[in-house]
């Protein structure tokens, strides 16, 4: 899949959430860059999907299972990985998501909201769902970085790429919990880049715009196969006029993990959104 001149030849990369749509694309790209790829997911079947994608592309992969919010499980995954390949050189924190209880049914507050199947407004959001979304997106980035990053520092350096969202900077209506958690990821990325610079560890983030995934498909695709009303509003605010493809994040990833091309790049958040964040709607 790669040759001796590939940037990551001889290196080990780990992708959390590597069984998801975006995560699988990251795994395949890292393998294309020459890395051995550890695919970490909460469910074994999901991790194996990521491994299959890498193997089908001619790469070398290993499936690991752990809940990224559970320190002991992530430590066990680290021990398993290091017994096979040694410490990671590249960590991509792609695990994330939202819960319906942390998403408002209405775009704006209404004194007399109609009946809905979920929280109507901010005042109705579920505390447990908000905590779960924060744990998954924020602590699910912090915990793997702390555990795998310790080995990176001891080995003399490495690269961390966190997966944020353009909603961290421009929160979307309804999704307050997810946007706030991703804003925490951005802040953490910048803080950690400063903290770990003496350890020769670069820390950056990629902020995807709207990409069609299994998670958001029900929100964007109508029963007849066309776009939902919300999807059309989104498309109206994307200058390129379309949603992104998972592979279109790979260029940013390949740059950030390349220690030659991006050796002076740390503490930055790269937005990949078709111009969404640049367009004000007027």
Structure description:
This protein has 282 residues and is α/β, with parallel strands linked by helices. It has a seven-stranded parallel beta sheet, sandwiched between helices. Strand 1, helix 1 and strand 2 form a beta-alpha-beta unit. Helix 1 runs parallel beside helix 2 and helix 4 packs parallel to helix 5. The model has no long low-confidence stretch (mean pLDDT 93).
Number of strands: 7
Question: If you average the pLDDT, what whole number results?
Answer: 93
What portion of the residues fall into strands of 2 or more residues? 5-15%
In quaternary terms, these chains amount to single chain
Strand order across the largest sheet: 3-2-1-4-5-6-7
Q: Helix and strand string, N-terminal first?
A: EHEHEHEHEHEHHHE
How far do the termini sit from each other?
46 Å
Q: Judging from the principal axes of the Cα atoms, what is the shape?
A: globular
User: Radius of gyration in whole Å, from Cα?
Assistant: 19 Å
Unreliable parts: none
Tally the helices.
Answer: 8
What is the share of helical residues?
Answer: 25-40%
For the biggest sheet, the summary is:
7 strands, parallel
Class computed from helices, strands and strand pairing: alpha/beta
């Amino acid at each position: 899949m790669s040759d001796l001149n590939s940037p990551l030849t001889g290196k080990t990369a780990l992708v959390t959430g590597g069984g998801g749509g975006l995560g699988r694309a990251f795994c395949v790209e890292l393998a294309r860059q020459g890395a051995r790829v550890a695919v970490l997911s909460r469910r074994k079947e999901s991790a194996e999907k990521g491994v299959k994608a890498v193997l089908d592309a001619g790469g070398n992969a290993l499936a690991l299972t752990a809940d990224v919010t559970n320190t002991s499980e992530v430590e066990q995954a680290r021990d398993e990985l290091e017994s096979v390949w040694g410490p990671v050189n590249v960590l991509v924190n792609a695990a994330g998501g939202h819960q319906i209880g942390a998403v408002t049914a209405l775009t704006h507050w209404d004194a007399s909201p109609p009946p809905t199947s979920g929280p109507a407004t901010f005042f109705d959001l579920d505390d447990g769902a908000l905590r779960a979304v924060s744990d998954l997106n924020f602590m699910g980035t912090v915990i793997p970085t702390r555990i795998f990053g310790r080995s990176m520092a001891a080995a003399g350096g490495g690269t961390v790429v966190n997966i944020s969202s353009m909603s961290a900077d421009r929160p979307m209506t309804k999704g307050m919990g997810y946007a706030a958690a991703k804003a925490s990821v951005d802040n953490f990325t910048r803080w950690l880049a400063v903290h770990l610079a003496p350890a020769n560890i670069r820390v950056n983030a990629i902020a995807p715009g709207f990409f069609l995934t299994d998670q958001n498909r029900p929100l964007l695709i109508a029963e007849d196969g066309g776009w939902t009303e919300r999807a059309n509003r989104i498309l109206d605010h994307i200058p390129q006029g379309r949603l992104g493809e998972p592979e279109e994040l790979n260029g940013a990833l390949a740059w950030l993990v390349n220690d030659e091309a991006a050796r002076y790049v740390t503490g930055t958040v790269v937005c990949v959104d078709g111009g969404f964040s640049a367009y004000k709607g007027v």
